[in-house]
């Protein structure tokens, strides 16, 4: 008897549940709370008799309606004024960020990069600068013209100081002996010396050199600017004594001999020189895909070198000096660069 009673009770319970669900499905839509909350039966309830009613948070009457715009003119004007202010402020901030950020490829303009990119102008002949007038006036005009021709970076591996010393020595050798000194010979000797100085300035100027000469001069400029044989006096290496070090037994570090051409900052400067040259060439040849890939490789290699320098120098003065001279910022070496 007990199994039969259990089966009857379970059948009655299932019948009651199905009857209750059908009754709920026949009920009309009723609001539960608020204008946006309603309880309505599902559309597919006839196919699925045991599916409970679905809950929607919006009324079906408002489904196809559009929101009515505000009719207050004062509110409309204030909203438009606020939008204009926000748009103007966004544009101002965008310009500030754009001006402050540097190009991750060529960087912003710095005195070092300007000197590297500068192409010396051709010097005119000295006779065109100085007309043939009185001897004393011609002498003063010669001296003024020579003074204006300042010696910058020279060709043929020469420095301005070396040229000045050589010219002074040649003048001393050309001076006439004391027994033959006259006012005319002195003026003539000075004029010849000034002409020789002007001629040497033109011979040694990079304006008369080839592109290879200019590249070689730029490499020398990078080494002399960032080489540690020069910058060690300006940025001394901080000493961090180790607990395990023993000054008596530790080997002495070999001192540097010659110029520094392999440090991270020198290599980064040389890569910057090549990058700027290649980027300038790609501006005219935009479809040169091979050089575009070479440019990307060099930019990423410079990123690695500057990351290593920052980690090694702990973001110190040497690292800041290199970044300021090359016109780069931390975003140019820490973020991904797309070319």
From TrEMBL:
SMART domains: Ribosomal_S15. One of its GO terms (molecular function) is structural constituent of ribosome. The keyword Magnesium does not apply. Transmembrane segments: none annotated. GO terms for cellular component: cytoplasm; ribonucleoprotein complex; ribosome. One of its GO terms (biological process) is translation. The keyword Ribosomal protein applies. It comes from the Eukaryota. It holds the Pfam family Ribosomal_S15. InterPro entries: Ribosomal_uS15 (IPR000589), Ribosomal_uS15_bac-type (IPR005290), uS15_NS1_RNA-bd_sf (IPR009068). SUPFAM superfamilies: S15/NS1 RNA-binding domain. Keywords: Ribonucleoprotein, Ribosomal protein. Belongs to the universal ribosomal protein uS15 family. HAMAP family: Ribosomal_uS15_B (MF_01343_B). This is Uncharacterized protein. It comes from Orbilia oligospora.
